[in-house]
Amino acid sequence: MNDNSGKTIDVNDDSFVDNRPVDVPVITIERYGDRKSNTVPPAKKSKRKLIILSTILVIIVIVGSILWTKRYDLMSLGMPVSISDSENIRLLIQPFSPSATGTELTTDSVLGVPMDFYSLQGLRASLENELPDTTDKSLVLFMRSSDYHPDGANIGTLVVGGNRKEAKERKSRAAYMAISKDGKPVIGVSLSDRMADYMTKTGGSFFRQYLMLSDATLPTEFYLHGKVERAAIARMNDGKLYYVVTHNKESMYDFADALREYGFVDAIYLTGGNSYIFYRDTDGNSHVPEETKEKYNKYSDKSLPAPLLVFRNAN
Fold first, then answer.
1. Which of 211, 241, 274 lies closest to 125 in space, CA to CA?
2. What's the pLDDT at 75?
3. Is the dihedral of CA 76, 81, 86, 88 positive or negative?
4. Mean pLDDT throughout 7-11?
5. What span, in angstroms and rounded, lies between the C-alpha atoms of 10 and 173?
6. Per mean pLDDT, which range of 96-100, 152-156, 267-271 is the poorest?
C-alpha cells in the first residue's frame, strides 16, 4: 500500500495503529427502587400531607370548641368569662384530697370597704339540708347557698348529691358553684345547664347565685340595691377560693369593686351576709359570737328552705 509520498506502507505494522481511547456511549436502564434517593414517592407525599392536614383540623376543632364556649357565654352575658364549664369539669375530674384542718382568717380594707377573708383551700364542700352541729370537730364554715321564693321554691337550678330540685329559673342568676362528689368546689359563670347536668349525672351538687365578678369585670347591672352586709365566694387567678364577708353595710357595686381591686377575678354572691359567723381556725379552735348562737336557736327547730353551703376539714 502506498501513501501520498509514494512510500509503501505495511498494514501489519503496529506502529500505525491508533491506540488512543475511544469514548463508548454507556446506556443505563433504571427502574424505581434500584437506587437510594431523597425523592419521596407520590403516594407517601399524599399520606404525609393527609396526616398533617388531619392534625391541623383536630387542633382547629379543639381550639374552636373552647373559644365558641367562651364566646357563647360572652354573647349571653355581655361580658368576658375567665373559665368555661368544660374547664371547670376538667378541674372537678382531678382527684381531690382535703388537707386543711381549718381556715385562715385575714382582714383588710379596700376602697373603704373592710372585709374578712376566709381561705377555703383544702376544705371539702357540701350542700346540707340541716343546720350543722357546731360542736362537730370537722365543721369549719357554713353559710347560705341558693335563694328561694316565699313559697319555698328554689330560685335557679339546684342539685344536691345528684338529685335535681325543681326550681323557678331566673336568668339573673348567671353565677354558680359546683361541687364534685368528693367535695371539691369550683365557681363559674354560664347561662347554660351543662354544669348542672354534669353534676346530676356524677352525684355532685350545684346552685346558682348572683354574679359579682367575671374575669375581673363587673356586671353591667346589679339586681340587688341598697346597703346590707354582703358576702361572696371569690376566686383568685391561681384558682384559690375565699369566703369574703363585709364588716359594714355595702352596696353590691361597692362590694364587687372592692373584690376586683383586691385581686379577685371571679366572685358569686351569697345572700345573708354574716348570718352565720362561725369558723374553725387551723388549730382546731371554733369561734362563735353570742349573737350568732341566737340565730342558730332560731333555725334549729325549723327545716331549712334551701340547703346551706358547708365546708369541713380533712378529718
1. 241
2. 40
3. negative
4. 49
5. 122
6. 152-156
Our CA angle for 294, 300, 304, nearest 5°, is: 115
Cα 60 from chain centroid (whole Å) = 20
Distance CA 178, CA 160 (A): 10
Residue 127: closest CA among 308, 312, 280, 270: 308
What does the block give as the cell for 93?
Answer: 375530674
Tens of pLDDT along 213-255? Answer: 999 999 888 888 889 999 999 999 999 999 999 999 999 999 9
Q: How confident is the model at residue 300 (pLDDT cuts 50, 70, 90)?
A: low
Task: Determine contact, residues 245/229, Cβ cutoff 8 Å.
Answer: yes
Q: How far apart are CA 108 and CA 305, in angstroms?
A: 33
Q: Which amino acid is at 163?
A: N
106: which 3 cell numbers? 385575714
Residue 105 burial class via C-beta count within 10 angstroms: exposed 0-12, middle 13-18, buried 19 and up: middle
In angstroms, rounded to a whole number, what is the distance separating the alpha carbons of residues 174 and 239? 19
Q: 124-128 and 286-287: which strand pairing?
A: unpaired
SS3 sequence of the chain: CECCCCCECCCCCHHHCCCCCCCCCCCCCCCCCCCCCCCCCHHHHHHHHHHHHHHHHHHHHHHHHHHHHHHHHHHHHCCCCCCCHHHHHHHHHCCCCCCCCCECEEEEEECCEEEEEEECCCCEEEEECCCCCCCCCCEEEEEECCEECCCCCEECCEEECCEEECEECCCCCCEEEEECCCCCEEEEECCCCHHHHHHHHHCCEEEEECEEEECCECCCCCCCCCCEEEEEEEECCCCCEEEEEEEEEECHHHHHHHHHHHCCCEEEECCCCCCCCCEEECCCCEECCHHHHHHHHHHHCCCCCCCEEEEECCC
